[in-house]
Design brief:
The protein is α+β, with helices and mostly antiparallel strands and 608 residues long. It folds into four domains: 2-182 and 601-606, Orthogonal Bundle (Triger factor/SurA peptide-binding fold); 202-215 and 459-558, Chitinase A, domain 3 (Roll), CATH 3.10.50; 242-253 and 364-452, Chitinase A, domain 3 (Roll), CATH 3.10.50; 257-358, Chitinase A, domain 3 (Roll). Helix content is 47%, strand content 19%. The protein contains 18 helices and 22 strands. The chain has helices at 2-25, 61-77, 84-111, 117-126, 130-133, 146-154, 162-182, 189-200, 224-233, 257-275, 280-287, 310-318, 364-384, 386-393, 417-423, 458-490, 526-534, 563-596, and strands at residues 50-54, 57-60, 139-140, 143-144, 203-210, 239-240, 243-252, 299-303, 328-330, 333-345, 348-358, 397-399, 403-404, 409-410, 414-415, 436-438, 441-451, 454-455, 506-513, 544-546, 549-558, 599-601. The strands form seven sheets. Strands 7, 12, 13, 16 and 17 form a five-stranded antiparallel beta sheet that branches. It has a four-stranded antiparallel beta sheet with strand order 19-5-21-20, sandwiched between helices. A four-stranded antiparallel beta sheet has the order 8-11-10-9. Strand 10 and strand 11 form a beta hairpin. The longest helix has 34 residues, at 563-596. It is extended, with a radius of gyration of 33 Å.
């Protein structure tokens, strides 16, 4: 009973974590990585207000940070390296899970899909939750005991199952609505047969391809009136959202000469230990930074001189059997190589070797120094001005160019979403950012320009519009040529004879081709597949557009379906198609909910 009491006391903690995980799993895509939440919300002002709102349901900044922290802690516990990309991904996934929760909960209420007591009990009977299987109360000799579990479930001693009930009452409705939506699509026998035909049945086809180059660029003209009309009709395509520009100073984290010497010295020390009798495999398992070498003692198997980088190969092939190299430097770091055997295979010399890789990375002292330099610069920039600090610290100032709110990358830095968030927060020009951690360093930004949204003037896009109109006219002219050739074919002309009149037209005979593979001269196209499947033997289809080309396809013959093989394969094919159809249908349905919802993402203003 003491164990059950501990379970009862701690259940709310377990269930809260699992509930967050479940809601996150409703979001398409997976979470990767981990980081400390203080890296995201280091100042109290970042936790003021709301992270956002969905149909008037506001997400408190503190609640948002707790959900993010929960995920980041779990991935950190799994040894995931902290990167800026992972921080952004986790944060976005938590936000998307909140959107899904609000939208789905509304639909659950609307459809009356709340969990009943009977459903909860049946669920517990049939699907014991994993977090309960690990509880001591339900185990015998360290393994889950189904009988103990069912005995406790059917003979409650008090309210010890209340927390589990509340958890399932929240989870089951989401499963019910997901199952309901995903079970709407159906896959017909015809669809399954067509899928089998595409991958198993050979076709013999003739094609005429009308290449875009048949219509010369200078054979069509575009008037100013046409350009103006096109601009007026497509003006929304030339709308440019508001952009921001920043300057920044970057402090790259990279190893120093002392870091290199430190790794070299470690390599030398390891070589001495091996030479004194310690097993190479044991030291490799402990020290190598080649992930594949951790579990196999650094074993590389057999390789020739061209399979490894040059310095590595040169050192390995120079060693005698059973010998160990001195530290070998490559772009990957320092290697210690042991050659175990040599041979000549098909005239090519090969060696069988093990290695220990020691990557040259910044040490703790280097990291502290770079962080200190960046912090000192940030202090001086705030005190004396960004440009004065850059001059004093001999730091190069770079510019980002124009960035939109949807930008993902900073030129010269890579992905740094928090810099974009800073740029589009409610800050006046001249504001300095906090010191931001990038993938391989630190950066501080200065907002230098806010460029309002505008429509590109016609003179700026005139050449692009002319190119579009020329392309459009060339394609239309090409279609007329294809339509004329098709009319001749319907009147009795053979496909292979058409190029006699139009040498630029390409004729191809495709023997025993599968429809899931591209035809020679044409890119893979669902329209081609659909066209061929609709044709009878000997029938010719009207011209179809494939990219900027036109094609005429004639079906000469096709192979027979192996009905026995189809009978074996069809349920596998149906399952594959159904799984994809259900996923697509559910995602589209959820996307429509989001499209119709009023969603305000205010997270960028949690930072600044």
């Amino acid at each position: 009973m003491a164990t059950m009491q501990r379970l009862r006391n701690n259940m709310h903690i377990v269930l809260w974590a699992l509930l967050i995980l479940f809601l996150l799993s409703m979001t398409i895509g997976g979470l990767v990585g981990g980081a400390n939440i203080t890296d995201l919300f280091s100042k109290s002002k970042r936790l003021q207000g709301k992270a956002g709102a969905v149909n008037g349901n506001k997400l408190d900044a503190m609640d948002y940070s707790k959900m993010v922290q929960n995920q980041l802690d779990q991935y950190r516990d799994n040894g995931q390296e902290i990167t800026e990309t992972i921080i952004e991904r986790v944060s976005d996934q938590v936000w998307q899970s909140y959107i899904n929760e609000i939208l789905l909960s509304k639909m659950i209420d609307h459809l009356g899909l709340n969990a009943t007591n009977h459903e909860i009990f049946e669920y517990l009977m049939q699907y014991p939750p994993d977090f309960l299987k690990t509880q001591e109360a339900f185990q015998t000799d360290g393994h889950f005991d189904q009988d103990k579990y069912l005995q406790a479930l059917t003979n409650p001693q008090g309210n010890e199952w209340l927390g589990v009930e509340q958890y399932l009452r929240g989870i089951i409705p989401y499963q019910k609505i997901q199952n309901l939506i995903q079970n709407l699509p159906a896959i017909s026998e015809l669809k399954v047969r067509e899928e089998y035909i595409k991958t198993k049945v050979p076709f013999t086809l003739e094609t005429l391809i009308f290449p875009f180059s048949m219509v010369a660029d200078d054979s069509v003209s575009v008037s100013d009136k046409e350009i103006v009309n096109y601009y007026t009709k497509h003006k929304k395509d030339y709308y440019v959202d508001e952009t921001r520009e920043m300057k920044y100073a970057y402090f790259e984290i990279k190893p120093t000469r002392d870091d290199t010497l430190s790794r070299y010295q470690l390599a030398t020390d390891l070589i001495n230990r091996i030479n004194k009798g310690e097993a190479f495999e044991t030291i490799a398992a402990e020290y190598t930074e080649d992930p594949s070498g951790k579990n196999n003692g650094g074993d590389l198997g057999w390789f020739d001189q061209h399979q490894m980088v040059a310095p590595f190969s040169k050192a390995a092939f120079a060693l005698k059997k059973g010998k160990i190299s001195q530290p070998v430097l490559t772009r990957f770091g320092y290697h210690i190589i042991k050659v175990e055997d040599k041979r000549v295979q098909n005239g090519t010399p090969q060696v069988k070797a093990r290695h220990i890789l020691l990557k040259i990375t910044p040490g703790p002292e280097t990291l502290d120094n770079i962080r200190s330099q960046a912090n000192l610069f940030a202090f001086d920039a705030a005190e004396y001005g960004f440009e004065a600090a850059a001059d004093s610290h001999n730091v190069e100032i770079k510019t980002t160019g124009k960035l939109s709110k949807d930008s993902h990358y900073i030129p010269g830095l890579g992905s740094l979403k928090r810099a974009i968030q800073f740029a589009f927060a409610d800050n006046p020009v001249g504001t300095l950012s906090e010191l931001l951690g990038a993938e391989n360093g630190y950066a501080i930004f200065k907002l230098i320009a806010v460029n309002p949204a505008y429509y590109k003037p016609i003179d700026e896009v005139r050449d692009a519009i002319k190119t579009n109109l020329v392309t459009e006219k060339r394609i239309n002219a090409l279609k007329k040529m294809a339509d004329k050739a098709y009319a001749d074919i319907k009147s009795g002309a053979e496909l292979k004879a058409v190029p006699d009149s139009f040498p630029d037209i390409k004729y191809e005979l495709h023997k025993d081709v599968l429809l899931n593979r591209p035809l020679k001269g044409l890119s893979r196209s669902m329209e081609i597949i659909g066209t061929v499947l609709a044709l009878e033997d000997g029938q010719t289809a009207s011209p179809i557009k494939v990219g900027n080309q036109y094609a005429i396809i004639k079906k000469l013959s096709h192979g027979n379906i192996d009905e026995k093989d189809f009978g074996v394969q069809k349920e596998l094919i149906r399952d594959k198609l159904l799984k994809q159809a259900r996923t697509d249908y559910y995602n589209k349905w959820l996307a429509e909910l989001k499209k119709d919802a009023k969603i305000i993402d205010n997270r960028e203003n949690m930072y600044y």
